[in-house]
Design goal:
Protein name: Mce-associated membrane protein
Main location: membrane
CATH topology: Nuclear Transport Factor 2, Chain: A
Keywords: Membrane, Transmembrane, Transmembrane helix
CATH superfamily: VirB8 protein
Organism: Rhodococcus erythropolis (strain PR4 / NBRC 100887)
CATH class: Alpha Beta
Number of strands: 5
Shape: rod-shaped
Helix content: 40-55%
Order of helices and strands: HEHHEEEE
Radius of gyration: 38 Å
Distance between the termini: 120 Å
Number of helices: 3
Subcellular location: Membrane
Length: 184
């Protein structure tokens, strides 16, 4: 049996065995990879911005549509009443009013309530036209043209009043509320 010299162990490389070499990737390949990653990031960012812009436009359009719908309903509620269920008619407007206007409306309604009942007055409203003068997600100005048909014991034949009003709306807790009304 032959002995191996102490300096050589079975695990140590022999002078004849090749040493491992590290292969470096060409710089061109690294630049291409960086360009691809950068391109993907730009595309993702553009898609994200496009989705956000689309969502924002949709939210703005939804706010305009709901403000106009609410304005039309509030104008109808303001101009419609019946002496037989006047408390219910007035409470609908009171429940949808805020701020200084809510107090003003409550006072005017209280002053008119006895007269409406005494003369057995009724009124119905028909919206002729409505549109937004201005709006954003939390505030809107709605212009409404409506015909109000009124009857009472002094005037049993229906009388039509052509009303024009500007309603100021504010969004509170996700719902539009009436904050002011001006007759035009």
């Amino acid at each position: 049996m032959t002995e191996t010299p102490q300096s050589q162990t079975p695990d140590s490389p022999t002078p004849e065995s090749p040493t491992p070499t590290i292969v470096e990737k060409p710089k061109r390949l690294r630049k291409q990879t960086l360009l691809i990653v950068a391109g993907v990031l730009v595309v993702v960012a553009a898609l994200g911005w496009g989705a956000f812009a689309t969502w924002q436009k949709s939210a703005d359009e939804d706010a305009r549509t709901s403000a106009l719908d609410s304005g039309r309903q509030f104008a109808t509620d303001l101009a419609t009443y019946n002496f037989q269920n006047l408390d219910q008619n007035l409470s609908v407007v009171r429940d949808n009013s805020v701020g200084e206007f809510a107090g003003q409306y409550a006072q005017v309604a209280a002053n008119l309530q006895n007269m409406i009942v005494q003369y057995q007055a009724t009124s119905s409203a028909q919206i002729i036209s409505a549109g937004l003068a201005s709006s954003d997600r939390d505030n809107a100005e709605v212009l409404v043209f409506l015909d109000q048909t009124i009857t009472n014991t002094n005037s049993p034949d229906p009388r039509i009043d052509r009303n024009r009003m500007q309603l100021s709306l504010v969004r509170e807790d996700g719902e539009w509320k009436l904050s002011n009304v001006q007759l035009l």
